[in-house]
Write a structure and sequence with these properties.
Shape: globular
Number of helices: 1
Strand content: over 45%
Keywords: Signal
Protein name: Lipoprotein
Distance between the termini: 48 Å
Structural class: mainly beta
Helix content: under 10%
Radius of gyration: 17 Å
Oligomer: single chain
């Protein structure tokens, strides 16, 4: 049981962005009208509040280059527009950088916005743990930002996933999360550049596997108006210890 929990713990923080190495199949067309796609979660499609601005611009070929713990990562680029159900998503070729803990995964990550609500959708994915064991984890969708909330206002949600590993029984994990706005109209300096009109917020995630707590993830994000994410600091704690990952914006192209 402990080994299963540790393996799952490597991948639950895809919700925190920073552990992912996302790859899509080659895209022949910029517009992909795909009515498929999976994802757990209790986030509906109801309208959000009145947006106070665009804190993650969505357009084909928008891209952001981050340093992860000082190492420059490949560009995080919006490579297609996908219609899934009744929603429009912008799909990334990768999300924030490479994997950690000796594990790798090919993940499809998408972003959608509804008024001032921002949702991140991760599709089902298969991964190599680096321990000679392959695994599959079902996808999810979560609400990552409400740009119209005031400081100290909050939101929350939850989702469940099923994990299967080669030679091991399948199991389920449940994630509950809460977000809070920490600052608005802030200024932050990242890699020597001053960004204004910044929302600083925090998401706290708690994960249980078959009812037993396994991991706690706390991430602070800085989103700059008309630019997108400029910084993220994630602290993940489980029974193996604590890991901190820093992502800082190096450059960006917004169309």
């Amino acid at each position: 049981m402990k080994n299963i929990k540790l393996l799952i713990g490597l991948f639950l923080v895809f919700t925190a962005f920073t552990f992912t190495s996302c790859e899509n199949e080659p895209i022949d067309s910029a517009i992909d009208l795909n009515n498929g796609g999976n994802g757990g979660g209790n986030n509906g499609g109801g309208g959000g509040g009145t947006s106070t601005g665009d804190y993650w611009p969505t357009a084909l070929n928008n891209q952001w280059v981050f340093k992860q713990d000082g190492v420059v990562q490949p560009p995080m680029k919006m490579v297609s527009i996908n219609s899934i159900g009744s929603f429009t998503y912008y799909t990334f070729d990768q999300l924030f950088g490479t994997g950690s803990g000796g594990a790798s995964a090919g993940v499809i990550a998408r972003l959608r916005k509804n008024s001032g609500d921002y949702y991140l959708k991760i599709e089902d994915f298969t991964f190599d743990t680096g321990l000679g064991i392959m695994g599959t984890l079902t996808g999810y969708e979560m609400l990552i930002l409400k740009d119209y909330l005031n400081v100290n206002q909050t939101w929350s949600g939850s989702f469940s996933q099923t994990a299967t590993f080669t030679g091991l029984p399948s199991t389920t994990q449940a994630t509950s999360y809460s977000g809070v706005i920490l600052e608005k109209d802030a200024t932050v300096t990242v890699n020597g550049t001053n960004y204004t009109n910044v929302i600083k917020m925090k998401i706290t995630q708690s994960v249980t596997v078959m009812g037993a707590p396994t991991n706690n993830v706390v991430t602070e994000y800085w989103f700059a108006k008309d630019i997108g994410p400029v910084k993220a600091v994630t602290v993940s704690t489980d029974d193996t210890g604590t890991e901190t990952i820093n992502n800082e914006l190096q450059s960006y192209i917004v169309n």
